[in-house]
Design a protein that fits this description.
By secondary structure, the protein is of the alpha/beta class. It contains 16 helices and 11 strands. It has helices at about 45-65, 85-90, 95-105, 125-135, 155-160, 175-185, 205-210, 235-240, 255-260, 285-290, 305-315, 335-360, 365-385, 395-410, 420, 425-430; strands at about 20-25, 25-35, 115-120, 145-150, 165-170, 190-195, 200, 220-230, 250-255, 275-280, 320-330. Strands 3, 4, 5, 6, 7, 8, 9, 10 and 11 form a 9-stranded mixed sheet that branches. A two-stranded antiparallel sheet has the order 1-2. α1 crosses α3 (about 95-105). It is globular, with a radius of gyration of 22 Å.
């Protein structure tokens, strides 16, 4: 719902409610669910609702972290954040226009970073085609677009990518999402490497917002907002309400203060974003190493992204969540697909906790593994016994299986891959050799 134009009332929708995302032009400001029994809803009521929801996103964009009460504790790396000035707020004119202008601000001395867009995929040409089509709508051009075909069983992806102008195809025979990501880093030439999943569609402003988020030289990684493409089936609604990729509509900075304040109870690096929408300085891979190939799809199942953000924070780097950089994700349409996804998410998360502890010895990882998660599952089990189960406990058995499987996976793969710890600076920072637009490695 675009607040920059006429806001139409919401009508009754066949007994169903609405999921609303409020925008001002191309800037997302907040979301909410409107139940069927709240319909119809007038334009005036909608505008009041939008105003109350958008205040955090607008305030933090205009006045910084001191405005928002929704920021995670200690999340701002800059201890000199400005003090909130009530007079300045009172004198502010047209805050929505001002927040949009702030989101588009580019420093005069900005060095134009070159961006390589990477899509890692395996045997999903129907998703990949839609993702590539959405890239054509970007309002800025990338330095290159790379499709990494990970251990394919057919040649459909190669044919699709090779038929798209400006897309470079790379075949990676070893299975594993983090294997494919590492191959992409080696193949890419941009000073920023931006990853999107094959099952997303990309907003036209995405690349520009990613680029602008690297203006601060301290920033090593950027993530963006992930919204659902559809909310039609039970599994899609359950995922979005209980397991969402959405990390909110306020810009957040995660640095040393965030890490220090949370390390003893388990650093919630999953709050930084989602691997479906993330970007890194190319130089970060020389400083922090490559993705740990024991994690994510094709291995432990998940958390290769969050483990890397953990590594950045543990080494003194900064990560930024920029909700103006938007992609739309295709959630699993069936409960069977969702259960498989959740099993892998929990399995990968548990494995990542142990891998993080193996590298950095943060006791919070073990606390979360042995206390927080078991207590969470025990509480959900107790609620089920009392007949008070909530929607998140629907897949409790699947989650518990994933938890145990993650521990077993780590015990079988304790050896640390060399790529996860260090990378040759010459390998990572030097541009890859020039390729033809359609090459098969």
């Amino acid at each position: 719902m675009d607040l920059s134009g006429v806001v139409a009332p919401l009508e009754v929708a066949d007994g169903r409610g609405y999921y609303l995302v409020f925008w001002y032009d191309e800037l997302p400001l907040g979301d909410c669910y409107v139940r069927a029994e709240e319909l119809p809803m007038s334009s005036a009521t909608l505008l009041n609702l939008a105003s109350s929801i958008a205040v955090d996103a607008v305030g933090t964009r205009l006045f910084g972290a001191s405005f928002s009460s929704a920021m995670p504790p200690g999340s701002i790396s800059d201890a000199t954040a400005p003090t909130l000035n009530a007079v300045e707020i009172a004198q502010l004119s047209r805050p929505l226009e001002a927040s949009l202008a702030q989101a588009e601000e580019v420093g005069k001395e900005q060095r134009r970073e070159t961006i390589s867009i990477v899509i890692c995929t395996r045997d999903r040409p129907e998703y990949l085609e839609q993702c590539l089509l959405s890239l054509r709508t970007l309002d800025e051009k990338a330095a290159e677009i790379i499709v990494v075909d990970n251990a394919p069983t057919t040649d459909q992806t190669r044919k699709l990518a090779s038929g798209c102008p400006g897309v470079r195809y790379v075949h990676e025979p070893r299975p594993g999402l983090d294997v494919a990501r590492n191959r992409a880093v080696r193949e890419s030439t941009g000073s920023i490497v931006a990853f999107v999943d094959d099952d997303v569609r990309i907003h036209p402003c995405w690349l520009r917002r990613i680029r602008n988020s690297f203006l601060d030289s301290r920033v090593q990684a950027v993530t963006g907002l992930v919204l659902p493409q559809l909310l039609e089936t039970e599994s899609q609604i359950l995922f979005e309400t209980e397991w969402t990729f959405n990390r909110g509509f306020s810009r957040k900075v995660f640095g040393s203060a965030f890490f220090a304040s949370t390390r003893d109870r388990g650093v919630p690096v999953w709050d930084i974003g989602a691997g479906a929408n993330m970007a890194f300085r190319r130089s970060a891979f020389a400083r922090f190493g490559y993705f740990d190939e024991r994690l994510d799809v094709g291995a432990a199942g998940c958390s290769g992204d969050s483990e890397y953000w953990f590594r950045i924070l543990a080494e003194g780097g900064v990560c930024v969540y920029e909700p103006g950089a938007v992609v739309f994700h295709a959630h699993r349409p069936t409960m069977e697909g969702l259960e498989h996804q959740l099993f892998n998410y929990i399995r990968g998360h548990v494995a990542a906790l142990l891998i993080q502890h193996q590298k950095y010895r943060c006791r919070g990882d073990i606390r979360r593994l042995l206390i927080t998660l078991p207590h969470h599952y025990a509480r959900m089990f107790g609620r089920r016994l009392l007949g008070k189960a909530d929607s998140q406990s629907t897949n409790l058995i699947v989650q518990c299986r994933g938890y145990l499987s993650g521990i077993a996976f780590f015990l079988r793969h304790r050896s640390i891959p060399a790529d996860a710890l260090a990378a040759s600076a010459t390998q990572v920072t030097a541009p890859a050799s020039t390729h033809a637009q359609h090459s098969t490695a």
